[in-house]
């Protein structure tokens, strides 16, 4: 229940606006990328990003279009798994009596599965290929439009909201460099190559900035505590079951 409140799940059908939070993106020791994000539940509703180009120190500024917001699928999925865990625990009559220990064990396994999936969605960002990032709807979120040699990706890693900016250069058809398309990864390194729109590119620079989302940190703690409580209950049932079997024997 504590975790669900952090995700701003509506309680008993009661609505209410989800709070907005302004988050500052930064990385110690570098000012290549700076930004301010507005997070509302599972949606980035505003983003202002400044990018300093390393070649000429030109400063580029990008912001979300006013009619756009970007859903963070990891938060959405984690919230849904928490909701499912609560449903498993509360979808019985208030006077329901469990008949056997195995019935409780089965319920705990189902709840723990949902809690583990919720936690894993926050701790394990998706691996994406560079063409998948290039074709993502995120590239159409910004005004002015992103130049063709810039790719961006937002994701959650534990309690942090991360922004990765990739700067690209075009590989000429006459280049002698061996072309090896990069596979899926959470973070691509300089030198990674890919083909998109009949054009070949290579990543020249990678900038990663991040910010802590305090309520995500709380949620992760509550996932851990909840899983521990479930396991403790399973252990107690196993002990009593063994004792009962021994007495019968």
UniProtKB/TrEMBL annotation:
Species lineage: Eukaryota, Metazoa, Chordata, Craniata, Vertebrata
Annotated localization: Cytoplasmic vesicle, Secretory vesicle, Synaptic vesicle
GO annotations of cellular component type: RAVE complex; synaptic vesicle
A Pfam family this chain is assigned to: Rogdi_lz
Recorded family membership: Belongs to the rogdi family.
InterPro entries: RAVE2/Rogdi
Chief location bin: cytoplasm
Protein name (database record): Protein rogdi homolog
């Amino acid at each position: 229940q504590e975790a669900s409140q952090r995700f701003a799940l509506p309680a008993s059908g009661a609505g209410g606006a989800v709070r907005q939070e302004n988050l500052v993106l930064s990385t110690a020791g570098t000012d290549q990328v700076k930004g301010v994000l507005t997070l509302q539940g599972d949606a980035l509703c505003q983003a202002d990003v400044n990018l300093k180009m390393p070649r000429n120190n030109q400063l580029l500024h990008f912001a979300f279009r006013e009619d756009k917001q970007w859903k963070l699928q990891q938060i959405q999925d984690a919230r849904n798994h928490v909701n499912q865990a609560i449903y498993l625990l509360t979808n019985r009559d208030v006077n329901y009596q469990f008949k056997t220990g195995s019935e409780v064990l089965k319920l705990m396994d189902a709840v723990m599965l949902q809690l583990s999936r919720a936690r894993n969605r926050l701790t394990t960002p998706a691996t994406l290929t560079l063409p998948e990032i290039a074709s993502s709807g995120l590239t159409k979120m910004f005004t002015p439009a992103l130049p063709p040699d810039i790719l961006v990706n937002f994701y959650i890693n534990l309690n942090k909201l991360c922004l990765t900016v990739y700067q690209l250069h075009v590989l000429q058809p006459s280049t002698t460099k061996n072309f090896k398309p990069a596979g899926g990864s959470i973070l691509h390194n300089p030198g990674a190559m890919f083909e998109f729109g009949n054009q070949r590119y290579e990543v020249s620079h990678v900038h990663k900035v991040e910010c802590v989302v305090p309520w995500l940190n709380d949620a992760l703690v509550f996932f851990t505590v909840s899983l521990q409580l479930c396991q403790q209950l399973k252990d107690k049932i196993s002990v009593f079951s063994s004792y009962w079997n021994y007495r019968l024997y």
